[in-house]
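Forum > Structural Biology > Help requests

Title: Can anyone predict the 3D structure of DUF3669 domain-containing protein?

Hi all, first post here. I have the sequence for DUF3669 domain-containing protein but no way to get a structure on my laptop. I'd be grateful if someone could post the structure tokens.
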Amino acid sequence: MKDENTPSFDGKPGASLKQNNNALRKINFNNIGFRKIGFGQCGFVFERPGWEFVSKVSRPGFGDALWSDFYQHLKVWECFRDRSLDCRVPAVHGYVPQEDTAWWAEKLHNFPSTSGFQMPSNALLTKRILPLPKIVREALIDSYCPEDLIESAKLNHTNRDCLARIYLGRRTKSETKSPNFTLRNFNLHLDQMIELDLYVAGFSRAMGEALAIIHWDANVDGYDIEFVLGNDQPISKDVVNMPSHASLRINTASTPKSFRRKTSIWCLDFNLCSSWPEDIGWKIPEDLIEQLVIAFFENDSYYPLPLMETDLEEELWSGFRDAYLYTAKAVLATKDARLRALPALFIQAGIKRERWNLELGRDFGECFV
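Reply #1:
Sure, ran it for you. Structure tokens for DUF3669 domain-containing protein below:
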């Protein structure tokens, strides 16, 4: 599964980096600490200079959730890794249980003592999604941060850790700018993406394609997964493999339109997902479709929705639907023929559920009650 450029399981730089970058050779990576860059339901996320991956460390009582995250993430990544897709899934580098005394003995002193819970714990190691570049972060601050907080927001180091959640199924409900503005886990709504001239049609197709692979290749329901925008700059292995003093011009742009060239969609956070044996698809297809519809609507509003009011929103749904069905057809072409009708049944059930939802006077995409 690994090539020579992949970091080893113990987190040390790979052989290529050692051979080709004299400056990095002189760094004692064992003395460089971890930095908390995010958090989720089941744990905190730490990055460390010199590593191409992050460590998600489970909070007390969430060890099983982190193991589920690892298991489902690995299933999905193995279905994405050999495909050329517009949506990416971070590579899985390993899982470190709390009982791995050798790993923790070497790494524990590098974790901050203020992490908020006691370690050692369980750790999931995955490829780091690079944050959005400075020019884009500052554009988001200028556009959506209260004016009196703009300068402090630009100086706040935590705002460097910016991945933007992309909500194609939700618009902002208020024009008031939040006094608690932060770029960590920034929520980018459809109307904001339109203001920034982002390629929302491409986003919708990428999500449809990704969800079809998650459903019909990985056999994972996608419950509570996230879709985010991250940086699309060269990762360190691209740099350290270059000849000495080679020319490198990292693309920087002066407008938010650079999103189109400089970012990638990533799918992550699989700890609440469920998977199923393939024969469930022909033994109890109704139950499977019901679960997939629940997972679709009980997620945050990443996906475009059916039956929306504007032409653009209808176009986004059509793009999502068509990409989902096209990709699912290709995935299922080599599988049991009894599965091939299920993707269309999922789409039909989703439309039916949303029509029923609207007839009851609920908001678009509202969760089950």
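Residues 1-27, 235-256 have pLDDT under 50 and may be disordered. The first helix runs from residue 15 to 20.
Shout if anything looks off.
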